[in-house]
Amino acid sequence: MSQTEVGATAAPATVRTPLLELKNLEVTYNQVVLAVRGVSMEVQEGTVCALLGANGAGKTTILRAISSVLTSQDGEVTDGTICLDGDPITDLAADKIVRRGICHVPEGRQVFRDLTVEENLRAAAFTLTDRRKVESRLEMVQEYFPKLTTLWKGKAGYLSGGEQQMLALGRGLMLDPRLLILDEPSLGLAPVMVDEITRIVTEVSRQERVTVLLVEQNAQIALDLSDYCYVLENGRIVLDGRSSEIAENQDIKEFYLGASEGSSTNYAAIKHYRRRKRWMS
Amino acid sequence: MSFFLQLTISGLAIGSVYALIALGFVVVYKATRVLNFAQGDMMMIGAFVTFTLSSTHGWPFFVALGVTLVASFFLGFVIERLVLRPMLGQPVFSIIIVTIGLAWLMRGIAGMAFGHSEQRITFPFSGESVRLPGVDVTLSAENIATLTMTMLTFLAFFVFFQRTRWGIAMRATASNQDVAQMMGINVNRISALAWGLAGVVGTLAGVILGMLGFLFIHVGDTALRAFPAAVLGGLDATGGAVVGGAILGVAETLFGGYLGGAYRELMAWILLIVVLLVRPFGLFGSKDIERV
Ligand SMILES: Nc1ncnc2c1ncn2[C@@H]1O[C@H](COP(=O)(O)OP(=O)(O)OP(=O)(O)O)[C@@H](O)[C@H]1O
Ligand SMILES: [Mg+2]
Predict the structure, then answer these.
(1) In testing the pocket of ligand 1, which one of A30, A51, A55, A61 has its CB within 8 Å of the most ligand atoms?
(2) Which is it for the CA torsion A242, A247, A252, A257, positive or negative?
(3) What ipTM, to 2 d.p.?
């Protein structure tokens, strides 16, 4: 795959190969449910890229495809490719993907409930065989999340929602990933906690030079945090651009930012948005 | 009093066997959520191999045991790779049926390879015994060996699960297989490892039974009697296996000793039913709190 791309996409005109690239990705569940319908995306190294979309848009499905954990859900990539540094990684097993430096922090704060905080972090460092590195990463995580230190030997299942989210993020950092994938880190957290998480994600992406792919339903958070943003609807990208520009986009303001202030899913507003979009195009 | 203590000691010895078998059930169940009905027959094969090496070929007992332990680890490993791995993603029910098939397959092969007569594994210090001062109780060499081996095994498993990279990974997989995968844990290797370990504890249990004089191709059925021990302790609790095994072994022997043999076997099942009525997930098992 060495031929140069004809500049047909609207993505920023860089010659650099993106760190992560999805080309026309299609994912099917149970051989019939088409959840992702031809998605193309690029995540440039050193940036924070957001993927925005309502419930059921297919965000988690895209992330699962990237980290190769679709099989347990009876899903499979039925078309398209996923490339890391230009190398196709679509068919690699999940552990190989992790070894390539992609770390996926799943939605819903799925910590290992029966394990202690420390053991959760150690389990996340499974692919690291260098003991000294494991210890130094443990220390680093404790610096980012001092709260976790006080809960070190406690069972993760008993942590509060915010603490579990910190632990989930901490686990994501254990492997010193090149690409950190965050699936709705703000979900179900109080505003103070959301601010805290937001601050840490920004800090991590700057200080550790980690590229971040952030999935959110909360447009405010997504646009604040990211450099570039894709909007997903019904398994298709309907809009993409620099986050600063998208934040100015009238539709987004009205239907995503507006909706995110009240109840998190304003179904009517979203339906209205879709109708208007159809009417406009 | 001394009759009671003597019974308790032999109860603990038989309880050790139950505990080890239960541990085999627990390890596989934890890592893969499969009830391994071939556990008993893996145990039987291990015992026969040790017997053949030590009694027929004259190898020193501990050498024979060591070699068999390594071999049974690989047997478990191979079984997982050849039989269980291809079943991945099938309903748990079918997988359990496959383990039953596997059990009978191993029994058939063992019948052809080792014959149908009853055997006994001779323990090197057999015949010697220790009298406990004060109380009128004798500990046979077999009893001492049994209790020591069981305690060492559980200690090793405890350290493995708490301290080692693979042990923690195995518990993480038991807790949430999906996320374990996202963390780079190769869950196929974990389940192969679990089967290997189940083979090892199976062999230990089988060899102990063999030393006590129970070695024949249907000895695997004992595993079904140990099954209540695993359920009693909690199918996903390693520590539960040892407690469940001990309780079951002692209760069985005491009931048998005081009320007669007929009550012996009944006891296991009465205990099982009572515990399940009170605590459906066993004494130490965890309620499934995982989100769907
Ligand atoms: N295991 C599955 N089997 C069948 N269909 C599925 C499965 N998982 C997800 N889907 C479907 O695929 C679509 C996309 O789901 P996905 O979880 O990716 O959405 P999402 O954008 O992450 O939503 P949310 O914001 O609610 O997390 C939905 O219509 C969903 O019903
Ligand atoms: Mg989702």
Answers:
(1) A61
(2) positive
(3) 0.83
